[in-house]
Specification:
By secondary structure, the protein is of the alpha/beta class. It has one domain: P-loop containing nucleotide triphosphate hydrolases (Rossmann fold), CATH 3.40.50.300. The chain is 34% helix and 19% strand. It has six helices and seven strands; from the N terminus they run αβαβααββββααβ. The strands form two sheets. Strands 2-5-1-6-7 form a five-stranded parallel β-sheet, sandwiched between helices. A two-stranded antiparallel ribbon has the order 3-4. The longest helix has 20 residues.
Length: 221
């Protein structure tokens, strides 16, 4: 029987044992609902008392556009080699090892389409850190250091038609006209989605679409 959202909450709670900090990863294709799931998990887990769960997206490790221009990779922004994978792996290790101090993680500003350093504080009270991104299960290069740093990785499965619709809407929301949004989704985003799909079987749990909460606003991860 497919898991419900309540089942996911119970499983996430069970990751924290003996007061030790746990790291949960949520992987999936662009537009699969990773950010929505992570945000609503953290919100629900923190609803009954002092906050003890934190959300740290992988997107804060996008390379800045100026660096993508220098490398000649801006036309495929979002591909594995347009992120600082080694920096992301190092942050996960620090979140594990430096659990007694505030750890600052970078965020990602959708309006600017740029990473923002030091914008997400993870306090010592955070016993569960939920991180999400496309390439958590990728075994290439520095990405191979990510999976060992996580206690579990869940994979967001999605209806392909709905995933594409949400991605187009997101690109339009943040500035692309419709034709440009469709071209990007069916080109760059789809190549990345195809790569991510090859990592699905490496996940500890596949989360089907019925278990994913509805997005609060038209945005996909």
């Amino acid at each position: 029987m497919p898991p419900t959202f309540d089942d996911l909450l119970l499983r996430a709670r069970a990751l924290t044992r003996d007061g030790q900090r746990a790291l949960l990863g949520i992987a999936g294709a662009p537009g699969a609902g990773k950010t929505t799931l992570a945000e609503q998990l953290v919100r629900a887990l923190n609803a009954d008392g002092p906050p003890w769960a934190a959300h740290v997206p992988m997107d804060g490790f996008h390379l800045a556009d100026v660096e993508l221009d220098r490398l000649g990779r801006r036309d495929r922004k979002g591909a594995p080699d347009t992120f600082d994978a080694a920096g992301y792996a190092a942050l996960l290790r620090r979140l594990r090892e430096d659990a007694d101090e505030v750890v600052y993680a970078p965020g990602f500003e959708r309006v600017l389409e740029q990473p923002v350093a030091g914008s997400i504080p993870v306090p010592p009270a955070a016993r569960l850190v939920v991180t999400e991104g496309n390439y958590l299960l990728l075994g290439e290069g520095s990405w191979a250091r990510v999976r060992p740093a996580l206690d579990e990785v869940w994979f967001c499965a999605s209806d392909e038609r709905e995933r594409v619709r949400r991605l187009v809407a997101r690109h339009e929301e943040f500035g692309k006209d419709h034709e440009a949004a469709v071209a990007w989704v069916l080109g760059t985003d789809q190549r990345n989605a195809d790569l991510v799909a090859t990592t699905r079987d490496l996940a500890d749990l596949v989360v089907p679409p019925p278990a994913l909460p509805a997005p609060v606003r038209p945005r996909a991860s």
